[in-house]
């Protein structure tokens, strides 16, 4: 094949924008722990015209808005080379990235609307990573390997899983998928290019109290692999690209100690995930570390170490033709043939009561509990008054789900949920990547993979490796099995197209697999094109106004100095007169907020050792009154740091009024005093 890899920053604004994932409006960005990247991989047939693109971006999920804008830019740049059928965009599902990049109204509620700077940085970052991969294409080879990752996941809805037939459960040793599938890429001389790993785990080691933008456990795995392969480079630099992509992670948590009551410390591993005192709001899962930062590193390192082992031993070469199959489907109206006599239908989208309960990884508000199959007259009345009562047809279609948000019948100011959804399969030789538009649970994923594999088998292409890529192309929440749906825990309440959603997807993906196997993909109907709503900027974000420094101070001045001396495993920190980090994001996509620098006696100059993409540094912004704000830079000095003289620097932009109607951004910087590490 011809192979190209690329990586580009897609972080966006790290302050004031709500983080996407936990749907917690109080969880607003206030700084940076690690940068977010889009990682792109292009594989093409050397002689033929066929090529495929796989992108894994450090974002909560790919929204339809992001996908349509990316495809538009690619069409303008490359004509018909990169299209909806051969480009897969997948989100890693970190819950610590900026939100606000959606066009459907439901997602505006917790992200303060549509935030153009967040949307633009994601779209531009994805396109840039594809550009870099496109420019770097050369002859190469692909190898596949698979193995088991231990001690890194639990099923967070085990009582739903147990609703699946016993005969089916007995075929599996675990209630999560522990398998990692890894694709290794080298050029024809054997030089390493990159890898994609697919593994099912929620990147929620960082919990909903976190306010620092970061890529969570799978992002830390990428960081470790890229740092190892791009020796001597700063994070985010170097040509080797390692993507840790999402899979069927719907009911899979990295918080391996399981759920405990935050107030009493007793286990709350019960069907409703509630505590005797405080109810569901007190029931939270714990990770393996002493805090969320350490848990993120432990899970990320587990994933990285398994990937490293699989990468080094990968010997099964992937060869054969490339093919792609894609359709747009009106998901609210699919007829599914369960058997010769029985046909069922999907529903208009709706979210159930237990959606509001959240999960043990991030609890909801009020007094909602998981496993609600009955509505509540109080909340029903509020719903009917505020949002309108669901039609009898929708109520009946979703049974036993009691409807809380009747999103499929809400259209102001735009539809609240997508109606038209992408289904897509890309085959690279013997590897078939199923790009799914949401979060399949463990058993849903197993059923989908098995159905697609048997479809390939029965049409003359046996031995396919089937992998699910999660959170692709458009976000449609969760997909549980029919049996799990009856239990109505969070994942089931969030299965928006009703109890037969999974059966519908299985039917659709079988159709795509059959078309690939029979070389008949051009005969698939493209389906109805999704809408691109005319929304530019509808947001409740505070506007960026002019800023000021305290009396007798200027931007970048030190307010709290570092100590003169530190040892390894201590934290060096300095606080500066700061400015809103959003100013910097709007000036440049790749603005670096901080450096850790070491003094070199040989050259009598300062050398940059770390930037703000390092997981050892933290950048905090706190807003004061009267246009003033502070920035704190922390360096968590790792064991093994070379002794010597160091300093911490900060780079920002402040808003200054130069005329009545004109405000400009002025760059500035600050530096701590020098300190010694002993």
Automatic annotation (TrEMBL):
Annotated GO biological process:
ceramide catabolic process; long-chain fatty acid biosynthetic process; sphingosine biosynthetic process
Supply the EC number(s).
Answer: 3.5.1.23
Name the GO cellular-component terms.
cytoplasm; extracellular region; plasma membrane
Domain (Neutral/alkaline non-lysosomal ceramidase N-terminal) spans 1-507
Q: Which UniProt keywords apply?
A: Hydrolase, Lipid metabolism, Metal-binding, Sphingolipid metabolism, Zinc
Q: Where is the Neutral/alkaline non-lysosomal ceramidase C-terminal domain?
A: 510-677
Its required cofactor(s), as named, are: Zn(2+)
Q: Establish whether keyword Signal is in the entry.
A: no
Is the Signal keyword given for this protein? no
- Binding residues for Zn(2+): 93, 202, 439, 478
Q: Which reaction does it catalyse?
A: an N-acylsphing-4-enine + H2O = sphing-4-enine + a fatty acid
Cofactor remark from the record: Binds 1 zinc ion per subunit.
Any GO molecular function: metal ion binding
Active site (catalytic residues): 253
InterPro entries linked to this entry = Ceramidase_alk, NCDase_C_sf, NEUT/ALK_ceramidase_C, NEUT/ALK_ceramidase_N
Q: Which PANTHER family match?
A: CERAMIDASE (PTHR12670), NEUTRAL CERAMIDASE (PTHR12670:SF1)
Family from the record: Belongs to the neutral ceramidase family.
Protein name as it appears in the record: Neutral ceramidase
Q: Please tell me the species this chain comes from.
A: Vidua macroura (Pin-tailed whydah)
